[in-house]
Amino acid sequence: MNKVKKAIIPAAGMGTRFLPATKAMPKEMLPIVGRPTIEYIVEEAILSGIEDIIIVTGKGKRAIEDHFDRNFELEQILKEKGKFDLLEKVNKSSNVNIHYIRQKEPKGLGHAVWCARKFIGNEPFAVLLGDDIVQADIPCTKQLIDQFEIIHSSVVGVQQVLYEETNRYGIIDPNKNDGRIYQVRKFIEKPELGTAPSNLAIMGRYVLTPEIFEILEEQEVGAGGEIQLTDAIQKLNTIQSVYAYNFEGKRYDVGEQLGFIRTTIEFAMNNDEFGADVRKMLENIHINASKTLITEGLS
Length: 299
What we know:
By secondary structure, the protein is α/β, with parallel strands linked by helices. A nine-stranded mixed β-sheet has the order 5-4-1-6-11-8-12-10-9. Strands 2-3 form a two-stranded antiparallel sheet. Helix content is about 35%, strand content about 25%. The longest helix is centred in the C-terminal third of the chain and has 24 residues. It starts with 5 loop residues before the first strand and ends with a helix. The chain contains eleven helices and 13 strands.
């Protein structure tokens, strides 16, 4: 079987959870400590051995293409000013082999993946969603690729969530497991609360075989009136086994505002350049907030 060397990054969503900030800016370009969110995703793909990336975009996403393009005027200015550290950071995001295709209609994640079918061809491929950033010693996608090379079947990345949050995710119904790898009876997209067969949730990382495209071609709309990738994976699972892998690493939810804020704060606290100052600032905020509560309680 072919090696996994191609990846799809869907980036066509409208980002309504972040309005009005995303009215004119793609949500994928919202910065987390000086770097656009999508840059963390692209970096994970590269560190996982991916050689070709296709980003599925939509209307108003031109800023993503500009970010990963060369800006020779900016590079020249940085050289003249001797800001070679910034020059290295700017070039880091442009020296990758990235392609683009537009999802012309907002039909959901499954349709976005299907839009990249001609680019992928008859090869296994990875899918990385931008709502989840994973920090791990071994990149999350690399962990899935390693499992794929052992089992020669599609594999999705999962981690445990609270049962009261299972209606927000695709959930697996596990059959049996061998360590972190699970055989799966069923993949269920956003089950109603109290009906989830487990709390193992799909976390936006997949390695799939190309047969998924034939299923997506005929896939009917599902939850939210969209073509759901999870539904297509369940159909694929009836034809060839699809596994789940409970990957190692810390997952950050940047798909909604509170998770985005939490991620930004934690990344800032761990920053080598100014992390100590951020931690001190947060301590002062906590102290001042505590004093305010005490004062209000006494008044």
